[in-house]
Recover the amino acids of this structure.
């Protein structure tokens, strides 16, 4: 923000030159109008989306009210709908995915920008960007055919036998479930997060690193300095990953087991998410209340996304204020 | 810089693809016309739009390609958007024909008066299981199935299952129930059957395209193929899939006890037989089909020997008076009825190779009567 005011100031100070070609001024104005209209389209789309989601979920809101958010039953036959298990499932899987993906993508980004020889890192960067472009249904199929058998046969049994005393890691292993969905989500959001973080590290001024090393810092200490320099950007990348995890439908529904229950018995048990139930039930839903309840879930997902994004933004601003000393300004 | 190059290349690719498709769009019809031009009067391009059920899509796709091969001026476009979407499109009159695995309910029929139901093909739901060490073709009864899916029978060694399968060594393992997570006609047919054979199921769960599954050890899988894969991967699991999917995979499937007390293996013969028993009591094409349920009729019929009990129709729906559809002209109406007539007759020959069950003669006759009712501006469309 400080940067913006500075540039505006700079333009104001330009000497008023009578000989400045008129075309340039009209061009500036046209461009300004263009960017403003493009930016307002974004606002318009979000506004319309929210409005129509609200319109579509009116029957459900009239019927259940706030009870929809805390309801724990989902029975299309009897017309009873509540979304609490879905909300919990969505938040849990996304949080777990982020927990796994954050250190992973930080590691990938650092390896690519700092530790790998240039010619390798170019190839690997390209591969990471390629992974970020793989459609989610492909991840879902891979999860269903490769990840699930592998986790059930190789990974989960030793975890259960060693950590089984914790309720989180006890109970039957189906293959698909909360942990599998979180792992798949983590794998899906790692490429996009690490691609952004790598760019951030590449953008840190080399003087910062050089100064640190000149003062006798080890490479690890210099890298730590870089991480703290790029901290706000890392948070931004994480938010982007979180957004994708919260809204992911197709891949999650293929591996989570789609069981509507308030809490799973363990991390191996099946659960459900908001986006997954939309992907599952919207196509064949004919009953008006059922459709409306599904749209209501969509509206809730939008609201939850908004809340999460606002919280994340607040964290970033707080960071910037506290650590303002070495950051940007 | 590199990333910008990639983006640029991607944008260029999209533009090229777009331009290519546009050019092809203008060129393609001309080349096909040059290729085959036997009859001079068939130069007018006719396009027919349909949408709906996904279950019969492979068959309809085959029908459309075979039918249009001989009639280059007719284009038929079928979008498998799901039965629910098909019914909505039918009520909104946005398609020429709609397909659904379930007949219109009374409420839907009120919103779409003058609808004709044409059963096009037959589906069946098959119980599949993954039981290491156990043989294929285990026996099940409706009651036991309902108890398994209710979560009342939780182990394979339960006396109720053992009693149906004398002499079979059943493992003392917990049963994992696999059901469809997406709403589907297959789930409707299966829960309709369970509701018929078990009062407790009807009270507690009921019938629907998606229901609230009560079994505690259950996982939901997306689509028929999702259920197949999940059952394949999960030892001691049981699930239900559409007949065509059960035939295409190597999963063992169960025999089901019918009302006559026999254990029947699902195959084309036993499914066709089931429809033959029910065909006598089917309504006319212009009547309401909302209460038609082959599974329910069979459950009452103790005479139905050799009939597999979980069988259902997949329907195509059209309006009796085609001129009420926006943008419909007489030539299109003729082509549509001709296509449906072809599907009911020649089309049935393609069913078996795709593991669909061809219609028995009595249903074909019923459909002939239905197609003869179709009119355009009050004039019968079908030329005798």
């Amino acid at each position: 923000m400080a940067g913006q005011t500075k540039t505006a100031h700079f333009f104001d100070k330009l000497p008023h030159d009578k000989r400045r070609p008129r075309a340039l001024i009209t061009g500036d104005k046209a461009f300004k109008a263009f960017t403003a209209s493009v930016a307002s389209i974004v606002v318009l789309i979000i506004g319309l989306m929210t409005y129509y989601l609200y319109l579509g979920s009116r029957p459900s809101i009239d019927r259940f009210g706030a009870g929809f958010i805390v309801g724990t039953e989902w029975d299309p036959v009897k017309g009873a709908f509540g979304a609490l298990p879905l909300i919990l499932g969505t938040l849990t899987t996304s949080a777990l995915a982020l927990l796994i993906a954050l250190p992973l993508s930080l590691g990938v980004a650092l390896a690519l920008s700092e530790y790998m020889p240039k010619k390798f890192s170019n190839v690997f960067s390209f591969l990471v960007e390629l992974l970020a472009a793989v459609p989610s249904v492909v991840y879902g199929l891979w999860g269903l055919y490769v990840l699930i058998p592998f986790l059930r046969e190789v990974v989960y049994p030793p975890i259960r036998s060693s950590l089984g005393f914790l309720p989180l890691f006890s109970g039957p292993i189906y293959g698909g479930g909360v942990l599998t969905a979180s792992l798949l989500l983590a794998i899906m959001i790692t490429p996009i997060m690490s691609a952004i973080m790598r760019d951030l590290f590449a953008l840190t001024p080399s003087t910062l690193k050089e100064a640190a090393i000149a003062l006798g810092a080890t490479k690890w200490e210099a890298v730590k300095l870089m991480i703290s320099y790029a901290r706000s950007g890392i948070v931004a990348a994480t938010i982007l990953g979180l957004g994708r995890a919260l809204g992911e439908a197709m891949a999650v529904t293929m591996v989570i087991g789609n069981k509507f229950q308030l809490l799973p018995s363990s991390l191996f048990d099946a659960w459900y998410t908001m986006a997954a139930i939309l992907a599952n039930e919207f196509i064949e839903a004919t009953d008006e209340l059922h459709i409306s309840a599904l749209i209501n879930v969509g509206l809730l997902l939008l609201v939850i996304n908004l809340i999460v994004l606002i919280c994340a933004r607040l964290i970033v601003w707080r960071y910037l204020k506290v650590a303002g000393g070495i950051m940007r300004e | 810089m590199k990333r910008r190059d990639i983006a640029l290349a991607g944008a260029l690719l999209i533009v090229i693809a777009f331009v290519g498709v546009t050019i092809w769009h203008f060129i393609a019809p001309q080349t096909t016309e040059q290729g085959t031009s036997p009859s001079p009067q068939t130069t007018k391009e006719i396009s027919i739009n349909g949408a709906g059920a996904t279950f019969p899509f492979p068959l309809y796709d085959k029908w459309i390609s075979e039918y249009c091969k001989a009639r280059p001026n007719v284009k038929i476009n079928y979008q498998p958007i799901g039965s629910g979407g098909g019914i909505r499109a039918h009520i909104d009159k946005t398609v020429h024909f709609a397909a659904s695995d379930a007949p219109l309910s009374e409420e839907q029929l009120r919103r779409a008066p003058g609808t004709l139901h044409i059963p096009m093909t037959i589906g069946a739901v098959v119980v599949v299981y993954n039981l290491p060490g156990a043989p294929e073709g285990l026996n099940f009864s409706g009651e036991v199935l309902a108890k398994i899916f209710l979560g009342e029978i939780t182990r394979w060694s339960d006396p109720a299952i053992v009693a149906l399968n004398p002499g079979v060594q059943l493992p003392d393992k917990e049963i994992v129930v696999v059901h469809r997570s997406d709403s589907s006609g297959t789930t409707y047919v299966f829960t309709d059957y369970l509701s018929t054979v078990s009062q407790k199921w009807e009270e507690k769960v009921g019938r629907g395209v998606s229901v609230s599954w009560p079994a505690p050890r259950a996982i939901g899988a997306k689509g028929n193929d999702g259920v197949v894969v999940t059952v394949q991967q999960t030892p001691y699991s049981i699930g239900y899939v559409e007949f065509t999917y059960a035939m295409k995979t190597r999963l063992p499937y169960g025999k089901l006890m019918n009302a006559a007390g026999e254990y029947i293996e699902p195959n084309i013969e036993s499914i066709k037989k089931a429809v033959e028993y029910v065909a006598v009591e089917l309504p006319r094409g212009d009547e309401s089909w909302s209460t038609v349920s082959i599974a329910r009729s069979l459950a009452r019929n103790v005479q139905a020997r050799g009939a597999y009990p979980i069988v259902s129709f997949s329907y195509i729906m059209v309006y009796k008076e085609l001129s009420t559809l926006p943008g419909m002209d007489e030539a299109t109406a003729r082509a549509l009825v001709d296509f449906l007539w072809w599907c009911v007759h020649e089309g049935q020959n393609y069913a078996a190779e795709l593991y669909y069950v061809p219609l028995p003669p009595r249903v074909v006759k019923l459909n002939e009567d239905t197609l003869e009712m179709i009119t355009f501006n009050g004039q019968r469309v079908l030329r005798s």
Observations:
- Confidence is low (pLDDT under 50) at residues 1-6, 323-329 of chain A.
- The first helix of chain A runs from residue 2 to 12.
